[in-house]
Amino acid sequence: MASVVQKEFCPQATCLIRAGLQSQILLPSDSDYNTCEESYFSNTAKLKPACITQIRHPQRRPRPLAGSNNIHGGVTIDLSLLNSVRFGSASEAVSFGPGVRWKHVYVKVQKHGRVVAGLLLRGGNTWMTARKGFACDNVVALEVVLADGLIGTADRNTHADLFRALKGGSNNFGIVVGFTMSTIPCQSVWGGSTASPNECIPDAIRITGYFTKRVVENPDSNLTRPKSDTWFTLTVKIDERIMPKAAEVHDGLVEELKSYVPDFSFIIQCIFQPLPLAFARHAVAAGGNVLGLERNTSDGILLQTSTMVKTLDQREFAYPRVKACIRAVDEYTATINGGILEWLYLNYADESQDVLRSYGLENVEFMRAVSRKYDPQQIFQYFCPGGFKLLGVML
């Protein structure tokens, strides 16, 4: 009874109680609230909502409430209990809820000699992209709760516009409560890492460029504790002048962090990933997405710079320096004809980067049209502000 009384004093919880969701509400005083908060892999993602509502069945229609969202003082809609996994032997597709852990999906499909890859609403650049396209291009159907609370299916034949917009458009259109993906034949995966001294950087840069150009000819060649983190990204053309500059800037960042974190208890990385023009062809074959990769005019390199540190003050030290590193590489690359490729990868981007704009005017206008059609009151733009929003895109 005490728990119910407490929840009645939370305005957001009161709205949920009136909607019949009383048994699914968690307040900061509930032990399960803290369990949910601690489940985030990064400390920077651990916010303090006024309450958490846990959805057990999509039919209960989780919907945004005015003044409520997944930020401090709002409402977090927790989908972790939607964790079923089903494999269709005839279709060789796998269906699962958004709360499932990928390891459970892998176990299910591995029994049938198949695999899938994740990060579905934000693109998903995986070790299978050269063979099958981005992860979002392997989605065949989505079950979506729209702003009016209705649940619908989006695929190539039903709500095809919404289906395309969700493939790369992130959380601008609804709450996805179910995914169906085609699976990829794969009996085993070989993986690991290698380490080389700084003297090998020129060779590594040369090999990366060569690998990017050849990866489509041999797509199988691409099979390769909580902290506060900072991620930035940039896409550049293959040019043996650009990557050495990025490596040089990265070395300077390492030295700065070493001066502030004397026990060297941080992780820092500068990653180069192939982004050949051919990646866009898989998207077209799968019905299209909104990433805009087809706008690239040359094979590219996806650059990701990130740090992981232990404390908030260390992150406050690292953040502007990582941002400055990306800016330095960006400014240098701009001096090279055609060096900058406009596209940004959402999963690697910082909130200050204009990701959706980098998809191109045509795709932004398409997403806005889909948003107005399925969310005429713009609930997901104004009352669910987390992530990269169409509302903030300036063209």
UniProtKB/TrEMBL annotation:
Q: Provide a Gene Ontology MF annotation, just one.
A: oxidoreductase activity
What keywords tag this UniProt record? Answer: FAD, Flavoprotein, Oxidoreductase
UniProt xrefs under Gene3D superfamilies: 3.30.465.10
Domain FAD linked oxidase N-terminal per the UniProt entry, residue ranges = 71-151
InterPro entries named among the record's database cross-references: FAD-bd_PCMH-like_sf, FAD-bd_PCMH_sub2, FAD-linked_Oxidoreductase, Oxid_FAD_bind_N
SUPFAM superfamilies for this protein: FAD-binding/transporter-associated domain-like (SSF56176)
Superkingdom field: Eukaryota
The similarity comment for this entry is: Belongs to the oxygen-dependent FAD-linked oxidoreductase family.
**Listed name of the protein:** FAD linked oxidase N-terminal domain-containing protein
